[in-house]
Write a structure and sequence with these properties.
Blueprint lengths: L3 H15 L4 H10 L5 H16 L1 H8 L12 H16 L5 H15 L4 H13 L4 H9 L7 H8 L3 H22 L6 E5 L6 H10 L5 E3 L6 E4 L9 H4 L3 E3 L18 E4 L6 H9 L5 E6 L2 H13 L5 E5 L15 E7 L14 H4 L2 H21 E11 L8 H10 L4 E3 L17 E3 L1 H4 L4 E8 L1
Parallel strand pairs: 5-6, 5-8, 6-7, 8-9
Antiparallel strand pairs: 1-3, 1-4, 2-3, 9-12, 10-12, 11-12
Length: 454
């Protein structure tokens, strides 16, 4: 018999592998259609996220027990092998016999001709009592254990990305970044100060049975929840008191230094976490034009604005590069946020499939788009106004390098500003902006820089 949890995990992993679905979206949709217990939902989440995060490592561990290249194995069968080896190697409390039994039953249900193959591979794999680290050491063999190829194998990241991180951050820090990216992060929420105080939000969560909640370490509006919880089902969430947002992301909106009554532009606004934070900081007084290029995401902005009962946000459909083009009557904005589309390499623990999707050429193409957006932002900002550029990546090609090129292209019309007074103590600005890497404060990775329009 196949446990409901492992069936859901397999179906989700198959969608990710075959249909190229996003892990977080596929998992959220799958869990919404089940009546699994909180414990089983946690197991599904662990298996799915862990398997996708460790896919490169898992494939290397499985390959010696399969006579043909894994690329030629049926994707459904490969999903069964990956999730099973993940449990065998990384979930110590799950008995091996249970993993193998359920894997064989899954194969019988999903790929009957491969059931004996799955059984044979997994039984051969479990004959060795070596730990996962010992198995990886064997695979690395005589290679330099500190090389990009070895770290790629050990931590499950593509070699090109490890090489770039080593170039930028060095071996010690890169290793910490890779390790943290494989660990599940706490659920972080931002308290809507227009609807609730921090203490009231904590009390509300505890009344709902969520005891493991503490104030954040970077933002005064943050709460960190370390237990698995369906926040969207809670009254505090439904009534607009809370927004799910990484604490690192909460540092960005305050950099705009908004005041009630201002005209603000958010050029790439969906899904709306930073947009709604801006509105809350403005006391919901003023105007925020919030753009996105996809109609579905504009509707997301409308939905989150309604839930948080914010009326100052005006969701609009459009490409940020084209805002105001041909409109000579458009009034410049007091502040503009460019939360630019990026490679997403700072959010790999929450979006693990990104590590398998991204290619080096993607970074180059995105940098061109990012520069165009930031240059347009400079044109749309009034004299004396503020432009904040932010990404959720930690590669300098999309961060400092983009800002440097825009500073040069603007010919002195904008200048770099110091962020120090608007950031928590201990976070230091580099020569251009601030890069917040995940291992520093157990947040996602972000970049932020501020420009002033002369």
């Amino acid at each position: 018999m196949i446990s409901p949890a492992r069936r859901v995990a397999f179906d989700t992993l198959r969608r990710v592998a075959v249909e190229h679905a996003y892990t977080n979206v596929a998992l959220q949709n799958a869990l919404a259609r089940t009546d699994l217990s909180p414990r089983d939902k946690s197991l599904v989440t662990e298996i799915v996220y862990g398997t996708v995060r460790r896919q490169i490592t898992l494939d290397a561990l499985v390959q010696p027990f399969v006579s043909r290249n894994l690329a030629k194995v049926d994707p459904a069968v490969l999903a069964i092998l990956r999730m099973s080896v993940y449990q065998l190697c990384y979930l110590a409390k799950v008995p091996a016999y249970a993993v193998i039994s359920e894997a064989v039953e899954l194969a019988k249900a999903k790929a009957p001709k491969a059931a004996s193959f799955v059984n044979g591979v997994l039984r051969s794999f479990t004959r060795s009592k070596a730990t996962v680290d010992q198995r990886i050491d064997t695979l690395i063999g005589r290679q330099d254990p500190h090389s990009a190829a070895s770290l790629s194998l050990r931590y499950g990241y593509p070699t090109w990305l490890v090489e770039r991180l080593l170039d930028v951050y060095g071996e010690e820090r890169t290793t910490r970044i890779l390790d943290v990216g494989n660990q599940p992060g706490a659920t972080t929420v931002r308290v809507n100060r227009l609807r609730s105080s921090l203490d009231e939000a904590i009390a509300s969560l505890r009344e709902a049975g969520i005891d493991d909640v503490q104030p954040g370490v970077l933002s005064p509006d943050a709460l960190r929840i370390h237990a698995a919880v369906d926040l969207e089902s809670l009254p505090a969430y439904q009534q607009g008191h809370l927004t799910i947002q990484d604490e690192g992301a909460m540092l960005i909106a305050p950099l705009l230094r908004v005041q009630p009554g201002m005209r603000v532009l958010d050029m790439c606004a969906a899904p709306g976490g930073k947009t709604t934070h801006i509105a809350e900081l403005m006391g919901d007084s003023g105007l925020i034009d919030a753009y996105d290029v996809y109609l579905q995401k504009v509707r997301m902005l409308q939905d989150i604005s309604r839930r948080l009962q914010l009326t100052s946000i005006h969701p609009r459909l459009g490409d940020g590069r084209e805002i105001g083009v041909g409109d000579e009557e458009l009034e410049p904005y007091d502040a503009v946020l460019v939360d630019a589309p990026c490679s997403g390499l700072g959010v790999l623990r929450r979006r693990p499939d990104i590590r398998h999707r991204r290619k080096p050429e993607d970074v180059e193409a995105l940098a061109i788009l990012q520069q165009a957006l930031l240059e347009r932002a400079c044109e749309l900002t009034k004299s004396g106004g503020v432009i904040v550029y932010a990404t959720c990546t930690i590669l300098p090609e999309e961060n400092d390098a983009v800002v440097r090129r825009v500073l040069q292209s603007q010919g002195g019309r904008v200048e770099l500003d110091d962020l120090s007074s608007d950031l928590p103590k201990g976070i230091r600005q580099g020569e251009v902006g601030v890069t917040l890497t995940p291992e520093l404060y157990d947040t996602d990775g972000f970049y932020m820089a501020r420009l002033l329009k002369r």
